[in-house]
Amino acid sequence: MRIDVTRDIFRLAQVFTISRGSRTEAKVLTVRVTDNGVTGRGECVPYARYGETLESVEAQIAGLPDALSRQGLYELLPAGAARNAVDCALWDLEAKSAGRRAWELAGLPVPGPEVTAYTLSLDAPERMRAQAAEHAHRPLLKIKLGTPDDMPRLEAVRAGAPKATIIVDANEGWSAEIYADLSPHLLRLGVALVEQPLPAGEDDALFGMDRPVPVCADESCHDRGSLSNLRGKYDMVNIKLDKTGGLTEALALREAAQAEGYDIMVGCMVGSSLAMAPATLVAQGARVVDLDGPLLLAEDRDDALKFDGEGIHPPVAALWG
């Protein structure tokens, strides 16, 4: 077995801004695992918020032994981007070697398309209104917020897309006071959920606070080990493969979270269709799907995922799985 890692850069269609900063390109790592002439692929997006860099994740992968299994991988790497790319490459390798689709190997039903959110970048209110108007035909819009001055932005997006369902992602950018002030307005403006309003290390403030719309844990939820710290604070969990450390743990987290009564959101970092492909399996039946990474790119992989009026479709075998 051979593991190869390459760096790939995908230009974004426009500058993408959240409360932590802006970017003009997606920098990803592509992992290829080859065994007996068959190659499986996976992609990850190292994320500085979790102390990851392209270099650190490459080093984690370079330290792996030549012989690997998905089960053994979980004893060698923690949850995070490195394990995600390798785990997904191993799923792809297994599927190609067996001549079957990954969902068959996982014992899942044949997946179908799922409506996905489209993310509006954080910007001045008038620009966010223009973004919203441009994409008002989409059924689900996600707004990046997370500043003390977000009400004008929220009002502007609702004015630009009066019929779209709106979800809000604060990316840990609010204080408890700001969130408490905004909460009734979220309900008034028809917001369907708010994602990670407070910093992960300060979210105990959510205990006892009114939650007029569902609150979803993102930075506070990585894998099954996170669930014990969420009760009483969150209504939903956002499952991202770069946080769980791969499809294997993502599927296990979905099952465990549902068993504890949480609704499911399936999200992504800004990456290519290869990164979204395994997440489409986790997204089946989720309350909210946010796998719009490829829609934000100016360029994508060959055999890219199909997006249409039905949503995001499962991958063709030539892409993954």
Structural notes for this entry:
This protein is α/β, with parallel strands linked by helices and 321 residues long. The protein is built from 11 helices and 13 strands. It has helices at 54-62, 70-76, 81-98, 102-105, 125-134, 151-160, 176-188, 241-244, 247-259, 273-276, 279-282, and strands at residues 2-18, 21-35, 38-44, 118-120, 140-144, 165-169, 191-195, 215-217, 236-239, 263-266, 288-289, 307-308, 311-312. Strand 12 and strand 13 (311-312) form a beta hairpin. Helix 1 (54-62) packs across helix 3 and helix 5 runs parallel beside helix 6 (151-160).
Strand order of the largest sheet: 4-5-6-7-8-9-10-11
Q: Count of helical segments?
A: 11
- Report the portion of residues in β strands: 15-25%
Helix content: 25-40%
Q: Sketch the topology as an H/E string, one letter per element.
A: EEEHHHHEHEHEHEEEHHEHHEEE
Query: Using DSSP, what is the number of strands?
Result: 13
Catalogue the unreliable spans: none
Biggest pleated sheet: 8 strands, parallel
| Structural class determined from secondary elements | alpha/beta
- State the end-to-end distance: 18 Å
Radius of gyration using CA atoms only:
19 Å
Arithmetic mean of pLDDT:
95
Shape: globular
